[in-house]
Amino acid sequence: MNKMKVNLDRKIGASYEIHIGEKILDRMGLILVKNNWAERYIIVTDTHIDALHGERVETALKKTGLRVDRITVPPGEAAKEMRTVLTVVEKLIALGADRSTALIALGGGVIGDLTGFTASIFMRGIPVIQVPTTLLSQVDSSIGGKTGVDTDAGKNLLGTFHQPKEVFIDLSFLQTLPEEQFRSGLAEVIKYGIIEAPDLLDTIEAAAAAGGLRESAFIEKIVTTACWIKKGIVELDERDQGLRRILNFGHTVGHAVEAASAYSLSHGEAVAIGMVAAAIFSEQLHYLPADDRRRIVSVIRAVGLPDRIPGNLDLGEIGSRIARDKKKRGETVHFVLLKRLGVPIVNGGIPEKMIKITLEGLHT
Ligand SMILES: NC(=O)c1ccc[n+]([C@@H]2O[C@H](COP(=O)([O-])OP(=O)(O)OC[C@H]3O[C@@H](n4cnc5c(N)ncnc54)[C@H](O)[C@@H]3O)[C@@H](O)[C@H]2O)c1
């Protein structure tokens, strides 16, 4: 099992450890016993993950003598909202939870965000342990303490910063993860390679060529590298006031494409297209070498993610969503661009005409 520490403000003891390995549930129980974060633990998961893994996780933790209960919510983004938070709170109260209780978020980014948010406000804040089960949550959302729920007006409009006490990344959960979800997570891993670790792109391309994208050694390598990069960025910018923005590489166009597809494209597919657009902007505005842009496209293709905007999507809608985003932030939409692979920069604005021409060029 690998271990790395996220070093945050020591005064409030916010630092925590990320544990990464195969089949680490037994050790997770022992570590929780040793660290004694709470008198009892309540697992929050969705019904889908619960059917696959819930009982196994609960049993493994109980074996170490911990007091453990389990609460389920419906799966999917639609459940990431206030009504679900209130339902979870009611269930917590019915179970007799109090300030000596800790929550365990067992699931993907939806469960991580929802459970983190609930833990941050329940009785003015109780500890949360993150146990991510999707590739996206293992490499991204379980680390960094951002929590949130959606409202009718948009995604993640209500949220808090609530760092977990510990993150346990058991890679064996990924064995049950559907291909599409896995590939969606790979888009975020490719993003880390592009902004911070170009070698990672070689590793991904080699694994794709050998048909080994789901092999344990490869997964362990990419998850460990991605966590290392994410933790480094979070340490420097815990509250998302500067550097953390580079994690949005590919996301400005990506979010617009995702919404314009009415979410028929996965987040990862949309981000892949957004990363290609960002590479083209970078080539035109900041002289990103054409070879670097081609490299980005080739790794995206190698893992089976799209590098073009599907022909059935309306470019006008994508453009106006990007423009709306821009307006919302006072004309300074922060596009994350590249000087070269591994060197991101935050750019204050891209001419509308360039956006239009680039989107047209990417439309199939
Ligand atoms: N807090 C952050 O920093 C941060 C960062 C990125 C994304 N997010 C959030 O993460 C969410 C997306 O997360 P996600 O992509 O993990 O999606 P998700 O949590 O909706 O999970 C996707 C689906 O996979 C299923 N699933 C989860 N683990 C499984 C497993 N091991 N085997 C089989 N099925 C499994 C779930 O039941 C669900 O149906 C979004 O709400 C996004 O806003 C948060």
What does the radius of gyration come to? 20 Å
> Tell me, what is the CATH class of the largest domain?
Mainly Alpha
- Domain count: 2
Q: Strands across the major sheet, in which order? A: 1-2-9-6-5-3-4
CATH third-level topology of the largest domain? Dehydroquinate synthase-like, alpha domain
N-end to C-end Cα span = 45 Å
CATH superfamily of the largest domain: Dehydroquinate synthase-like - alpha domain
Oligomerization category of the chains in this entry = single chain
- The helix tally amounts to 13
Broad shape: globular
Topology overview:
Blueprint: E1 2-6, E2 16-21, H1 25-35, E3 40-46, H2 47-62, E4 68-73, H3 82-94, E5 101-107, H4 109-121, E6 128-132, H5 135-141, E7 149-151, E8 154-158, E9 166-170, H6 179-195, H7 198-209, H8 216-236, H9 251-260, H10 267-286, H11 290-302, H12 315-328, E10 335-340, E11 343-347, H13 352-362
Parallel strand pairs: 2-9, 3-4, 3-5, 5-6, 6-9
Antiparallel strand pairs: 1-2, 7-8, 10-11
Helix pairs in contact: 1-2, 3-4, 5-6, 5-8, 6-7, 6-10, 7-11, 9-10, 9-12, 10-11, 10-13, 12-13
The structure holds nicotinamide-adenine-dinucleotide.
Commentary on this structure:
The protein is α/β, with parallel strands linked by helices and 364 residues long. It has two domains: 2-176, Rossmann fold (3-Layer(aba) Sandwich); 180-362, Dehydroquinate synthase-like - alpha domain (Dehydroquinate synthase-like, alpha domain). It is 49% helix and 16% strand. The protein contains 13 helices and eleven strands. A seven-stranded mixed beta sheet has the order 1-2-9-6-5-3-4, sandwiched between helices. Helix 9 packs across helix 12 (315-328). The protein is globular, with a radius of gyration of 20 Å. The structure holds nicotinamide-adenine-dinucleotide. Nicotinamide-adenine-dinucleotide (NAD) binds at residues 46, 48-49, 52, 75-77, 80, 107-111, 113, 133-134, 136-137, 140-141, 144, 146, 155-156, 173, 176-177, 181.
